[in-house]
Specification:
This protein has about 400 residues and is mainly beta. The chain has helices spanning about 1-25, 150-155, 275-280, 285-290, 390-394; strands at about 35-45, 55-60, 65-70, 75-80, 85-90, 100-105, 110-115, 115, 125-130, 145, 170-175, 190, 200-205, 205, 225-235, 245-250, 260-270, 295-305, 320-335. The strands form five sheets. It has a five-stranded mixed β-sheet with strand order 3-2-5-6-9, with no helix packed on it. Strands 10-15-16-13-14 form a five-stranded mixed β-sheet.
Length: about 400
């Protein structure tokens, strides 16, 4: 189980290392993968006339990274390749008051639209508004749902596999409820009636399915390093194709301009459990009757994120390069109790006389017959020369 959890961290580390290497080699800004977002809109004045050459700036609330563009001749603008998260959008134009919209949230894969109406005045005057948290998504025909970072942290997951948060989306079902105990590579999700093999799972934009192994995931992303889980059920853009089912896209957290880290452990132990009635009913063995079934489950790990910088030399603003690294481990030991009927000591020797009277195997007496002669065996005893070595061994 160490490999399962470490695999997702290896993917994340490899992606981070590759980004650092590409940045060093090219010296240019490294853009995120396909789960980035975009911001677009139109800038007008109070009369509705478009405002060309207005400066639009999007600043990440988490990292402080800034992207800016200028509106075209019809007052339109588009900023692409923005990591998902909250942004502050600032619009400046000569002869107009500066407009600032705070709390603009960008979902992964689906862009947002922010139209701004400027008021005449001095640019030194700033008008600040708060973004509408319940805005209607009009930039894409995709039908889906975003499980937010707050939901990822708050919703109880028995086994802490964020993949199963997709069951919060209407039309997504599984063979077990979201609260069932599971921490494996299982991918038995059914989206709008499609087969589980028709889904695509992605981690940070990269496919994470084993196409030669029943489409199971290649690893399990730990909850503490997961930012959001996006579920696209239908109508998603062609760039997210390659499947006739749904898309479950796990977006990891990103480092910010401040350092954050944590160490944690989640545990389940039979020491805290009450005994079951099945084991309590077994009075033959006191070690079974007096104690619940042994169960040990420990899930522990750590994570650290922040800016990559060298004081006074590299990334001094802490707004250009970030890292996120973490590991999670699983220790799982259990000894479940099973009960069933097995042959008695006499039956294992070919003597089935116990079946001639009331017994615990059948509702009425059973007479054994020779399968060749069709004659009953006297006393239900099979002669030794007719006993099957394989049957005795079984």
């Amino acid at each position: 189980m160490h490999f399962l959890r470490s695999a997702s961290r290896a993917i994340l580390f490899a992606a981070t290392f590759s980004s650092i290497l590409l940045l060093v080699v090219s010296g240019t800004c490294v853009l995120a993968q396909s789960d980035t977002s975009s911001l677009s809109g139109t800038v007008t004045d109070s009369t509705g006339a478009v405002v060309p050459d207005a400066r639009v700036t999007a600043k990440s609330d988490a990292t402080g990274a800034v992207r800016n563009v200028t509106t075209n001749s019809v007052g339109a603008y588009t900023i692409t390749n923005l990591p998902s998260g909250n942004y502050t959008v600032t619009v400046e134009a000569s002869g107009f008051q500066t407009a600032v919209q705070q709390g603009t949230h960008l979902d992964p894969s689906i862009g947002a639209r922010v139209d701004v109406a400027l008021k005449s005045g001095n640019t030194s005057t700033t008008v600040t508004v708060q973004a509408n948290a319940n805005r209607l998504q009009t930039e894409s025909a995709a039908v889906g749902q975003l499980v937010t970072a707050e939901q990822v942290k708050s919703i109880q997951l028995n086994g802490r596999n964020p993949l199963y948060l997709s069951q919060l989306e209407p039309g997504v079902t599984r063979n077990a409820p979201i609260s069932s105990f599971n921490f494996s590579l299982d991918n038995t999700l059914y989206v709008n009636g499609s087969r589980s093999q028709e889904n695509i799972l992605a981690f940070d934009g990269a496919p994470m399915v084993r196409t030669r192994s029943n489409n199971n995931s290649v690893g399990v992303a730990d909850v503490d390093s997961t930012s959001q889980v996006q579920v696209l059920t239908t109508g998603y853009p062609a760039e997210y194709g390659r499947t006739s089912g749904g898309q479950v896209r796990i977006i990891p957290k990103s480092g910010t301009s401040n350092y954050h880290g944590g160490v944690y452990e989640y545990l389940r132990n039979s020491f805290f459990n009450a005994n079951t009635w099945i084991r309590k009913n077994d009075t033959a063995d006191p070690t079974t009757a007096d104690h619940p079934a042994p169960f040990r489950y420990n899930q522990f790990g750590w994570n650290l994120n922040g800016p990559v910088y060298i004081p006074g030399h590299f990334n001094t603003s802490k707004q250009r390069l970030f890292f996120l690294v973490g590991q999670e481990y699983v220790r799982y030991r259990n000894s479940p109790t099973y009960q069933g009927q097995v042959p008695t000591a006499l039956m294992r020797q070919g003597n089935f006389k116990e079946l001639l009277g009331p017994n615990n195997f059948y509702s009425q007496p059973v007479q054994l017959v020779n399968p060749i002669t069709k004659q009953p065996y006297p006393g239900n005893v099979i002669p030794k020369d007719q006993l099957s070595p394989n049957g005795l061994a079984l």
